[in-house]
Amino acid sequence: YANMLLRALFFSLLNCARALDAAGGHRSHEALGMVRDAGGLCETIGSCSENKGCGGGSSSGSAAPPSETECTDLLSGAAYVEAVIYHTRGKHEHAEASYRQCIERSSSRSSGPDHKQSSSTAALVAAAAYDGLGHSLFDRRQLSASVTPLRTSWSLRSSHLGEGHADSIDSLYALGRSLHDLEQMVDALAVYERTYRLQSQALGPGHVDSLRTACNVARIHRTCGNGAAALEACDATIKVGRESLGESHPFVLDMVAMRGMVLHEMGRTEEASKVLMDVVQWTTDASGSSNPAVFKDHLAKCFGGR
Predict the structure, then answer these.
(1) Is the four-CA dihedral 66, 72, 75, 77 of positive or negative sign?
(2) Are 174 and 135 in contact (CB under 8 A)?
(3) What DSSP state is assigned to residue 293?
(4) Which of 57, 104, 134, 162 has its CA 20 to 30 A from that of 173?
């Protein structure tokens, strides 16, 4: 019975820590303190395991003491919550250390005596930690270092959750972002195209996430000088964007502007001029001034960039 109470208290501390962190302000120190308290409880729970329970004997109605691997699971969860709190506060090096600690503990589960029963759970915890590690490295512009953890997160999540799960798609898109910023265009394009197919199936082609990925497909084609492919991608994205967002939505106008730029780069200057003039008409306000942001070569800003 005491074991059950300790476990309940452990998870309550972690949940409270996440809630304090989400509340923002200056409560991250409190949140981290709760995570450390939860870690201390793990040691107590481990002692209970060594002593065959904390309830003073093993009656038929008492809960079995946790195994060593169950304690490892608890410590992995504490490390992950600690990493998320550090990450949210922009303390990337601390976050990355905690993410790696979580990965190490979760990975050790595959060698435990009861790993078959909970290997999937441990793998998903590791996948979340790999994803967080990759995002933290990406935030610090450690792009090359971010690729492997993001790729590993995608592999684990797609294996255990399925390719179409939201978490799997998020990891795959993040991998595409890293490859894109590394200018590994062939690999980035393949990842974006796969991401778009999965997003279209799971969310629909008109969802903002799907449109953002389609935009990046067009951008890569344009960057690589594949005018015809870029134009085709622009046309398809504009059509879906107009149907789902409306003709004058900033994302749609950005895509139309990029279509005009692609036409210009292909030497089709008359068509390009007409397209860009159409954009000017849509963006001209009552005073007659236009919005120059539409012509910035940074698309889908309303969806947070790439």
Answers:
(1) negative
(2) yes
(3) G
(4) 104
φ and ψ at residue 112, rounded to 5 degrees:
-75, 165
Q: What is the pLDDT of residues 241-253, one digit of tens each?
A: 999 998 888 899 9
Residue matched to tokens 């991250």: 28
d(CA 98, CA 33): 15
Give the gyration radius of the chain's Cα atoms: 25
Both tokens of 234, joined, read: 């622009």
For 132-163, what is each residue's pLDDT tens digit?
999 999 999 999 999 999 999 999 999 999 99
DSSP for 208-244, written as a single string: HHHHHHHHHHHHHHHHTT-HHHHHHHHHHHHHHHHHH
What is the DSSP secondary structure assignment for residue 65, as one 8-state letter?
P
Contact 160, 124 (CB under 8 A): yes
Smallest CA-to-CA distance from 182 within 127, 152, 141 is with 141
pLDDT at residue 105, as a whole number = 82
Between vectors from CA 49 to CA 43 and to CA 53, what angle results, nearest 5°?
Answer: 115
Question: Which pTM value belongs to this model?
Answer: 0.78
Looking at residue 64, the DSSP 8-state letter turns out to be P
